[in-house]
Recover the amino acids of this structure.
């Protein structure tokens, strides 16, 4: 059941770049490669393989956007990000729970939790997109150095946050 | 107990990194938007708070069992605060199989709720099965953070060697002074009728043989044979062993010794045990059910301790190795020191039976299958047969046992030769 759900999520992920530009060979190849790598990852419940498949989907999506050049569609992007987060969480949990006994309400509780987090993420993305539209209009008149300094500050803060996240609280929890 | 990020964070960060990199590279805002739900998940996954409280208890259905019997492990977990996802794992020691259920489980508990998690373990091979206690891991949202703990409740289950019933038990040549199941040649109190003799003062009226009295005209009484027990000493060779872990010749010999001990004790005999190895140990001959458990405890920990020191059975005190005892030696006969000790015992007048546990099947099980290994095993078996014939020519009563077939079948082959010797002796 979990494998079927993961396969459906993977298929949705692979279909999103194709929806942007359906008949472009590089996009199709990348989506197919992502489907194959992700399929193997789902069969083996391997998070690294599914991560690789997610990266391939992102590259295919970027390529499709560049080649097709459509108008900005934040909803499809939010769907892609949410599906990817859901797929990674599902594969990680299924890999951990392989061969283990599951209590009566574990799956229902997990699905509720995943949907809550991913739903929250989607709402946050919608809100940020809504805020970004007037901000974008305001920034058009700003000079380039201000944008560059703000971007650099943002990048430094992001890297610092990542380091704090990975090293925070000591070593990573073992996965076995 | 502290929350720590899991490896899933790296996967999320990789994807977020790709999305932002591609967004900058292509100048498309959609790719930056893709990263937003994942960044939100990363932040939400870190909001774990203090680890919740719980109470955990682990119980075992028994602390003693025989090989291939099962022990039921029950873990009770009670949540003092809600546990969204808790993972429990009881690590299994080697040579322990899972018979029913799983030693790994996930649960979700609401505040004040309790779950009982049960699984069955099967001990393969004699051992002290040690369980340290379940490991407990709490998972944060989306599995991005985890907190670990272990409920330390060490418990040991003694897995004794299994013993099959034995019908063809070698009968001791000489009996002792206590009441038992063997009809002694000496006359006295008993139920087995013996000779008839004229009545003498002091004889009891109930012993008068009226048929003989009427025929012979004077009072005659029937004498009876005494029923006596015997002393049996099991001599276990732990100088060398062959075979895979749990299926070595020492394991097979321990199973045989357990079967013999149970059978002789059921006949009211006193049974002792000498572990003849690098570190000699012994159990004084005794009788009864408690003594069987003492013997099984000793057999449980019988193991090979390597030494060059040549131990001598002369050092064993007579209360451990009583004169006129039947000595049953269980050995693969791989070490010459044991063969010398057995020959010495026979020369000192002990009734000795050597059960030669064949190491060939054990060695064959440990080695990979090949034509060369097959030929080597056949040659080894032939060499052993010649060696056993040589021991028999020296006067030792040797019976070969492969360690897997019932010991009763091997002892039945010995039965006729031994019975002849009992009658002669």
């Amino acid at each position: 059941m979990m494998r079927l759900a993961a396969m459906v999520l993977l298929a949705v992920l692979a279909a999103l770049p194709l929806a942007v530009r359906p008949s472009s060979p590089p996009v199709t190849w990348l989506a197919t490669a992502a489907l194959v790598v992700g399929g193997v990852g789902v069969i083996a419940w391997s998070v690294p393989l599914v991560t690789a498949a997610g990266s391939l989907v992102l590259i295919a999506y970027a390529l499709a956007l560049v080649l097709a050049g459509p108008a900005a569609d934040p909803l499809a992007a939010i769907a892609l990000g949410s599906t990817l987060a859901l797929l990674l969480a599902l594969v990680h949990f299924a890999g951990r729970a392989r061969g283990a006994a599951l209590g009566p309400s574990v799956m229902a509780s997990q699905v509720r939790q995943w949907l809550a987090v991913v739903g929250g993420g989607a709402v946050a993305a919608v809100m940020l997109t809504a805020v970004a539209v007037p901000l974008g209009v305001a920034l058009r008149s700003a000079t380039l150095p201000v944008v560059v300094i703000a971007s650099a500050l943002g990048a430094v803060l992001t890297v610092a946050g990542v380091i704090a996240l990975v090293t925070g609280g000591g070593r990573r929890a073992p996965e076995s | 107990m502290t929350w720590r990020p899991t490896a899933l964070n790296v996967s999320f960060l990789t994807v977020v990194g790709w999305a932002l990199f591609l967004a900058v590279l292509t100048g498309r805002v959609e790719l930056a938007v893709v990263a937003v739900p994942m960044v939100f998940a990363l932040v939400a996954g870190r909001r774990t708070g203090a680890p919740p409280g719980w109470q955990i208890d682990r119980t075992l259905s028994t602390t003693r069992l025989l090989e291939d019997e099962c022990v039921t492990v029950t873990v009770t977990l009670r949540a003092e605060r809600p546990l969204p996802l808790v993972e429990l794992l009881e690590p299994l020691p080697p040579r322990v199989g899972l018979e029913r259920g799983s030693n790994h489980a996930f649960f979700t508990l609401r505040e004040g709720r309790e779950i009982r998690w049960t699984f069955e373990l099967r001990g393969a091979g004699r051992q002290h099965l040690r369980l340290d206690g379940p490991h407990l891991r709490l998972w944060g949202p989306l599995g991005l953070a985890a907190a670990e703990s272990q409920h330390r409740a060490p418990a040991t289950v003694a897995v004794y060697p299994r013993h099959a019933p034995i019908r063809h038990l070698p009968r001791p040549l000489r009996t002792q002074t206590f009441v038992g199941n063997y009809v002694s040649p000496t006359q006295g109190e008993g139920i087995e009728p013996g000779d008839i003799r004229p009545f003498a003062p002091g004889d009891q009226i109930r012993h008068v043989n009226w048929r003989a009295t009427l025929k012979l005209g004077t009072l005659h009484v029937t004498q009876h044979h005494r029923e006596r027990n015997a002393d049996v000493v099991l001599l276990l060779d732990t100088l060398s062993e062959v075979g895979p872990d749990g299926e070595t010749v020492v394991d097979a010999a321990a199973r045989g010794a357990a079967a013999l001990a149970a059978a002789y004790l059921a006949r009211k005999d006193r049974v002792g045990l000498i572990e003849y190895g690098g570190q000699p140990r012994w159990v004084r001959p005794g009788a009864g059910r408690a003594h069987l458990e003492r013997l099984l405890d000793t057999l449980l920990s019988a193991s090979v301790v390597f030494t060059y020191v040549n131990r001598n059975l002369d050092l064993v005190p007579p209360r451990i190795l009583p004169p006129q005892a039947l000595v049953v030696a269980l050995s693969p006969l791989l070490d010459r020191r044991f063969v010398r000790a057995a020959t010495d015992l026979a020369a000192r007048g002990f009734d000795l039976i050597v059960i030669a546990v064949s190491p060939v099947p054990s060695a064959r099980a440990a080695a990979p299958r090949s034509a060369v290994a097959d030929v080597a095993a056949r040659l080894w078996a032939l060499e052993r047969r010649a060696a056993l014939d040589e021991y028999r020519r020296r006067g030792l009563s040797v019976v070969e046992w492969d360690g897997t077939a019932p010991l009763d079948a091997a002892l039945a082959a010995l039965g006729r030769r031994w019975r002849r010797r009992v009658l002669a002796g």
About this structure: The longest strand of chain B covers residues 179-198.
